[in-house]
Amino acid sequence: MNLLRLSVPSSVMILWATIGICADLKDVVPGDSQSSAVTSPENPDRHHTEDHKLLVDAQQHCVFMTERQRPDDNAARITLKPNHRYQISVSGEAFLSSHTKSKADPFPGVTVFYCTNEQDGFATRTKVLKPGDQISFVSPKRQGKALFLSAFFLDYWAESPNRGRYELAIQAEPVKRPKQRHSKYADRLLNINFGREPRSSEYNGVIGANCDVWTLIDVGEQHKVGLPFADGTGPDVEVKFSRNDGEWGIADHFGVCHAYLYHNCRCVDLSVTLNYLPHGTYDVYVCAHGDAPDQNAAIEILSGDHLFAGKSTLNDGSWAFRSQELTEGNQYVKYTIDVEAGSPVVITSKRDGSNLSMFNAIQLKRLK
Question: Cα angle vertex 106, ends 101, 110, to 5°?
């Protein structure tokens, strides 16, 4: 974990509260004197509202700048739950010396470094709070690593007779998810994304709704059956994917077109074959772009005996393909094709501006 580098006079001490995704941090043991959690009596258990008290002692939980210490070694900490709304209030008194009254040397405040669900679903923010202040935030949805809140005093001299403590009153409740609906044409929309789940945990494709169903093709995969439509029902489409062994992502992009698959030999054009599509007319959206201006693709679609070709993703020397907004001719191309019953559809990503062929995402919407 990267820490802020502070230039602090020896007489100025800061309590630094850190919320981070840190694999090496240890949880507070239930019942530890540092932390306690109870269900709020004003809220029934079904609301899952919890009140935590994190006690930070000026001696026990102090990191000294003259000592070789990790901040985590002496920190008071508590585990956070993903996708919860937190409200933190600070109270108490803590001092840098044994003096009292007018000669007392209090800590100036608490610095809170915390992660939120802002931006792409994970961001960090910093605030300095005095006793009586409070902040609120929503924790990220990510659950791959533990989320922590840790707090410690920062002092220069190890011999300082620190005294007192701060109390962080923490109230947490799960974020209520609004009722989501599939897109109105989800029963005839097929979605495929390549490489990994969206970084934002939201499937914001060219068309459709965030809660629509997608099928993920991971690196190395070449065959899947039973692909559903966006509403989770049939038609049990089969997909075959050419050999691939590379995975990368587009910087600053967080949706389904962020990740893409390719072949490291950079000597082949990747293709996707779809079998058992219901017959009809389809709008086909193919997102195919790497993370460099010249890493675009020329897309061809073979449906039965009909070849659809002539469209490519962006290759103008700019970095416009990193835009969050998906536009035709930039990150994706669109064709309207006819599919005969029992006839396969082969989508090929041909190397164009570079020697790289790739797929980010494919969407097929049956019109009739």
Answer: 150
Query: What does pTM read for this prediction?
Result: 0.58
Strands 110-116, 14-21: pairing is: parallel
228/234 Cα distance (integer angstroms) = 5
- Phi first, then psi: give them for residue 288, nearest 5 degrees: -150, 100
DSSP three-state, residue 69: coil
Position 166 scores a pLDDT of 92
| 8 Å CB contact between 335 and 178 | no
Q: How many CB atoms lie within 10 A of CB 320?
A: 13
H helix intervals, 220-338: none
What structural domains does the chain harbor?
14-174 (no CATH), 186-366 (2.60.120.430)
| Average pLDDT over all residues of the chain | 83
Highest mean pLDDT among 99-113, 142-156, 207-221, 335-349: 335-349
All residues at 6 or more sequence positions from 308 whose CB lies less than 8 Å from its CB, including other chains: 300, 301, 302, 335, 337
Q: Beta 189-195 vs 332-339: how paired, if at all?
A: unpaired
